[in-house]
């Protein structure tokens, strides 16, 4: 292949991610130059976010229902869902233990000097009530909202199972849902055309608003988190991709994760990043029935990234309050609270507030510390969202390994090559 052809191939493959990177860089520069005035650009970013959120609700309803309805073998579906939750739990525990080690070696609150401001009165937080509220709603109309994504997913799964149980009559509905899923993915592509402008505006406002804080009292905590996240992502996500599909899985995972990473970093929402992540998973080669179930449920139920940030916030508060963070009992409670806070979070911007309330409530910390971890949450949210999004993808790869067979990706690539060869022959004959 000539150099010109290679350049054209590279540009064709990475054109959109490169455009997004350029948009983000320009947005950062604009934010630095304009400072707080960059907030005037935020409406453009908000329009992009709103478009994504409008697409996400019907996408989840149609895609999850379609995936379950078209699954066929209900026993295999049960195995997939069981495997999914086992993988989610294991990766969340590994993430928690990793961040515990990091926070013991590099205490995030060391050298912190900040004046506390007592927040307004916070209502009592009931964990059981919050979990119930996160999983169920009392009216169908409430399902059609991004704030109630988990109840929507549960409803979609049940609806898909019901369609499957109908048998032959249900196949027409399942087929229609499959077609609707394709339509929704095309709509996603249309919406993503607005991403360059939306991300530019979002980053300009973000840097203009929070830029100075990164070099203030929170710098050590934010630095510890981002370095830990890069190490965790580089080592553990690569390992998970390898477990899922070997060296080929690793190369294809990182190759096609650029757009989801940039979308997640810009939108700070695992739900808003779903369209880009589903498209990337398709390019990687993750089977449709696996990616449609795992990624859509994982956007709200996978707590890996939430555990990393939860442990950091807990260790930070222990340091600020002068409490010892060095015993097995403390580590165990921190791990449990981090997982619980992740479970009750919603997959939307600001959803971390719920988890932060839970941390303060369960430990009985003074309310004055609440604004501290809220600020930390805002500063680390973009990077945390990145891990949440691509972490779902590696989980989907592992799940495909155990439900579709160890050669699932090799078979997919062979199928692509065969299809490509047949198209070449058809063109030659034509």
UniProtKB/TrEMBL annotation:
GO BP annotations listed: dicarboxylic acid transport
Keywords: Cell membrane, Membrane, Transmembrane, Transmembrane helix, Transport
One Pfam match: SDF
Membrane topology: Multi-pass membrane protein
Positions of transmembrane segments: 16-35, 47-68, 80-107, 149-166, 187-208, 223-243, 327-348, 360-380
Organism superkingdom: Bacteria
Localization per record: Cell membrane
GO cellular component, one term: plasma membrane
Record-linked InterPro entries: Na-dicarboxylate_symporter (IPR001991), Na:dicarbo_symporter_sf (IPR036458)
MF annotations from Gene Ontology: symporter activity
Listed name of the protein: Dicarboxylate/amino acid:cation symporter
